[in-house]
Design a protein that fits this description.
The chain contains 5 helices and no strands. By secondary structure, it is an all-alpha fold. It has one domain (2-98).
């Protein structure tokens, strides 16, 4: 699920439920290729909630590991593997602004 979530959700997004419907459909399509389940409104909500929680946890871990121990410029320069550099810069700037 983590790989799928990183493909479709920018690092600074917090809630998968707020993604565009078309994006959510792509997520469910990819997940159904791996995990077979009967899609219902309830299971869709549960999956989005689970993915949102996983994404927030991952973001928090990245902040602790790669941002809190560096200057803003150093943090921006140490973009994570698999994360678009402009997305990483945006996230670092948001963390710097919010403290």
């Amino acid at each position: 699920m983590g790989v799928v979530s990183k493909m479709y959700c920018k690092i600074w997004k917090k809630d998968f439920a707020k993604l565009p419907v078309a994006t959510k459909e792509l997520i469910f399509r990819d997940l159904q290729l791996t995990y077979q389940w009967d899609r219902t409104e309830k299971t869709d909500r549960e999956m989005l909630a689970h993915m949102s929680a996983m994404h927030r946890s991952w973001r928090s871990k990245q902040k602790k590991r790669h941002f809190n121990v560096k200057s803003l410029d150093d943090a921006i320069a140490s973009v994570l593997a698999g994360v678009d550099s402009s997305d990483w810069q945006t996230m670092c700037e948001m963390w710097d602004y919010c403290g």
